[in-house]
Amino acid sequence: MAKAELDLKGEVCPFTFVKTKLKLEELESGDTLVATYDHEPAIGNVPRSLKAEGQKIISIEEIETGVWNITIEKA
Fold this sequence. Notes:
- The protein is α+β, with helices and mostly antiparallel strands.
- The protein has helices at residues 15-25, 40-52, and strands at residues 3-7, 32-37, 56-64, 67-73.
- The protein contains two helices and four strands; from the N terminus they run βαβαββ.
- The chain has a four-stranded mixed beta sheet, covered by helices on one side.
- α1 (15-25) packs across α2.
- The protein is globular.
């Protein structure tokens, strides 16, 4: 199982979701993606949208003030 990273600091919705989705398309089922965001609305919107598409959200962690990592397992 591969683990990928995606730095989306500086990106805003809906681009945060679109770029996350495009990166997930490059991965195999069961791979994980750690995506980093600094756009607060993305912390609620991206996981909700990914769950609706069947992806698994493993964790949402604030790694520093205003910066979050969301770990996603590709379905």
